[in-house]
Design brief:
globular, 8-stranded mixed beta sheet, 8 strands, alpha+beta, about 40% helix
């Protein structure tokens, strides 16, 4: 063991957070925690993890659940393909492995929704197998300490970091090792403005010594953003309201929403009033209001949404993905964070 590892282990034993998934080596629970924590802050993920384990304490419970149940419980976490993959893989574990989570690294890696990092985390924490996990925190720690200048969003950069990480992983206590490095990156060696003066590695860290902490890890690409314009229709008919299920291979697949018309540009109020609505007859509607624009930023796209609140005397036609529900039941459906937030501010509170 060299000084780098020893300093991080000592730091970890002093400063590690008391997180619920650190009290188990059950691969099912570790898997759930790792999938939740992808693209999710730990503070937000804790309550989701607790609710998930309470609702689905075993892989059999998760496999037996409906997709709607899982998506509703997942609501607000985003990246809903994670939840759909969880459901698919739970069924796979039950059907192919009799409900026993596989111990072999390659088999774990073959499961849907599990990449190299997640497989390494499960293998090391649950089964003490010496596989180096490489999440964003560990990538940042290794890049800064060892002075990796190749961009971390390239094959060359990741290959260099993986080589170092694999050399560092011990034959025993691999889970402890991976968690220590992850925690160090999450709390001490944070992305922006880390307190290097409090870091036990400051004097031997390449980035700190060379005043490059703000630049490392290097990235070669910028995320491309697209802009989309969503026009949601809150269509009421007495006590009923229309809902739509998203079924295309797009964001929020299999979540629910109000009937939606998407346009390539922002529309004026007059243009909105003139739109053809394929799910109802334009002749039988009364426009109650049109909301201000709501901006919703995702990783690769920015959505500008408006909500058109209308009443109709009769539903003339609607496709199989658009259906009536009682207004009081609307909160039972899994919806996007954009819709969840907007529901609290919009018209349904009036009813």
């Amino acid at each position: 063991m060299n000084g780098f590892e020893q300093e991080i282990y000592t730091w970890y034993l002093t400063y590690k957070r008391d997180l619920p998934w650190r009290h188990t080596t059950d691969p099912y629970k570790i898997w759930i925690s790792e999938i939740i924590l992808q693209q999710t802050r730990v503070a937000q993920g804790i309550n989701y993890y607790k609710r998930f384990i309470e609702e689905f304490p075993t892989v059999f419970d998760l496999a037996d659940a409906s997709e709607d149940e899982i998506l509703k419980l997942w609501q607000g976490l985003g990246y809903y393909s994670r939840a759909r993959n969880l459901h698919f893989t739970a069924k796979q574990i039950v059907n192919q492995f009799n409900g026993v989570f596989p111990r072999d690294f390659k088999t774990i890696l073959s499961l849907k929704g599990i990449g190299n990092y997640t497989a390494s985390a499960i293998a090391s924490i649950a089964f003490d197998l010496p596989h180096a996990a490489l999440d964003g925190n560990i990538i940042r720690v290794i890049s800064r300490y060892f002075g990796i200048t190749a961009p971390v969003d390239t094959e060359k950069g990741i290959s260099e970091i993986q080589k170092i990480a694999s050399e560092l992983i011990p034959d025993k206590n691999a889970g402890f090792h991976n968690q220590a490095l992850m925690e160090f990156g999450a709390i001490q060696c944070i992305p922006k403005k880390p307190e290097c003066n409090l870091c036990p590695l400051m004097e031997t860290c390449f980035a700190a010594v060379n005043n490059l902490v703000g630049q490392i890890p290097f990235k070669s690409k910028k995320v491309k953003q697209s802009t989309r314009y969503f026009y949601y229709y809150i269509v009421e008919n007495k006590d009923d309201i229309l809902m739509e299920k998203r079924t295309e291979n797009d964001i929020w697949k299999n979540l629910y929403q109000f009937p939606l018309i998407e346009k390539e540009k922002e529309l004026s109020d007059q243009e909105i009033f003139a739109l053809e609505m394929p799910f109802i007859s334009n002749e039988s509607v009364r426009f109650r209001s049109v909301s201000d624009t709501v901006k919703h930023v995702l990783t690769h796209q920015t959505i500008y949404a408006r909500f058109i609140h209308i009443e109709t005397g009769e539903i003339v036609s609607f496709n199989k993905n658009i259906f009536r529900v009682n207004k009081k039941d609307i909160y039972k459906f899994a919806v996007s964070k954009l819709l969840e937030r907007s529901l609290k501010k919009l018209y349904l509170e009036e009813n």
